Amino acid sequence: MEIKRAKLNSEVEEYLNAGKDFKEIAEIKVEQRNLDRIRSYVEREDYENLEKLYNRNLIEYGRKEGPTAEQLFEKYGSYEDVIYSSVKINKGMNAILGIDD
């Protein structure tokens, strides 16, 4: 996780140097995380758990792809925290889906 956080720090710095603000970066990173999670199920051909993920996301966030940056802003209180939440593992969700070690 430390390697992922260091990579994210570097990416955030690049985005900031390119003139993006924390909200814009959060939007990029949240969508990337949502797509990466979906892609991981598709690559494993784990369509049963992908469907569970979609259903949970619809209930929790109102969209099957997952949360928006704005929804996570309400949870975390800052776009910077939203950005760094993208490198956290959701152990609870992984346990529910049966993919936690």
What layout of secondary structure does this protein have?
Blueprint (H helix, E strand, L loop, with lengths): L1 H16 L4 H22 L3 H15 L7 H8 L2 H7 L5 H7 L4
Keywords, separated by commas or semicolons:
globular, 101 residues, mainly alpha, 6 helices
Characterization of the model:
With 101 residues, the chain is mostly helical. The chain has one domain. Helix content is 74%, strand content 0%. It has six helices and no strands. The radius of gyration is 14 Å and the shape is globular.
User: Unreliable stretches, pLDDT < 50, 5 or more residues?
Assistant: none
How much of the residues is beta strand, in percent?
A: under 5%
Supply the number of structural domains: 1
The overall pLDDT average reads 90
Task: Give a short account of the largest sheet.
Answer: none
Measured between the Cα atoms of the first and last residue, the distance is 16 Å
Specify the helix fraction band: over 70%
How many extended strands?
0
Give the count of helical stretches.
6
Class from helix and strand fractions:
mainly alpha
Overall outline: globular
Element-level helix/strand string: HHHHHH
Radius of gyration: 14 Å
